[in-house]
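Subject: sequence -> structure tokens, single chain

Hey, anyone have a minute? Need the predicted structure for the following. Not urgent.
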Amino acid sequence: MTDQTASKADSDNGVRSYLAKHLREYGLLFALIAIMAFFQVMTGGVMLRPINITNLFLQNSYIIIMALGMLIVIVAGHIDLSVGSVMGFIGALAAVLIVNMNMSVWLAVPICLFMGGVIGAAQGYWVAYWKIPSFIVTLAGMLVFRGLSLWLLEGQSVGPFPKEFQIISTGFVPDIFGIGRPNGTALAAGATAASLIFWLGLRGRARNRQYGAVEEPMAFFIVRNAIVMGALMFVAYKLSTFRGLPNVLISMTLLTVVYAFITENTVIGRRIYALGGNEKAAKLSGTRTERLTFLAFVNMGILAAFAGLIFAARLNTATPKSGFAVELDVIAAVFIGGASMSGGSGKIIGAVVGAFIMGVLNNGMSIMGIGIDYQQIIKGLVLLAAVIFDVYNKRKQS
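Reply:
Had a minute. Here:
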């Protein structure tokens, strides 16, 4: 075998090895593209219309925000079944404070976020320090906060909210360039985000090369970034031809960037993965596992509260049924995004993509007029397929 042949064989083996280890990430990206293309055809072009893309962000923002917190809880080796009920309870609390008691929005919102943190702390305390399984604690929380929502609202819907509260969800960023249509702010934001992603990718490659880590093949890097950057610019252009950037998209993006940075580039992020991978080993290495678990639930409570405010602002009312079964979509998004039920693995970007897959499925099937019964069946099968693929991929690698 010549040196050139050996080099080519090593290169092929390297590509196959890299693909095997990152198959889930590439699969998620192409699955989302394939699902959107399918519904674009089946809905006669409705899926990718500017107004529908805007609705996709508005309808799924609260799911994505809670998925960020749920990923951390699941990576730490736990689960939170109460997020839907907490979301509904916080929306009810906001309605009572703002509508019934005429409290200022600027005072009511911090109170609601603080209450979400208190709820997370109350549940996290029993899980972290009393070692009660999170499934039991949060199942109890789901029932408790569902009942508290009914009690607060007295079984009735409360609304409408003032305009300054509604803009949390239904507002749009004004065009600072004054162009109108297409919206200059949306186009500039899309170009900036695309450039930033490419720059961060190049920086990551340089860092991997410096530390001798397995590097993504250049062809894969170019194709993946071209797809992501093209998709960002496409979405930015579509939004620019409607009303521009929704406020919730800005909130969602900032939270995603912050949580991705924390989980991938900080000590506390590495400790969360260590906690979920092997709690005893993490504790022996000096990690305060109880406090970390406690903080994971506090964080989840705050994000559920924020999602509750966004949901209430979008509906412009608080109803006793708000948040019903939402926890199932949140948990499904995280598992579709590649998180492991046993903890210790999963990425923020994966959870966001998983949430978008669930959102596109909901939106596309609704446009096509598919009944809620069939929608539930299809979403369940998608979740099962994602978990089976994850288990199969891990067995293949071991």
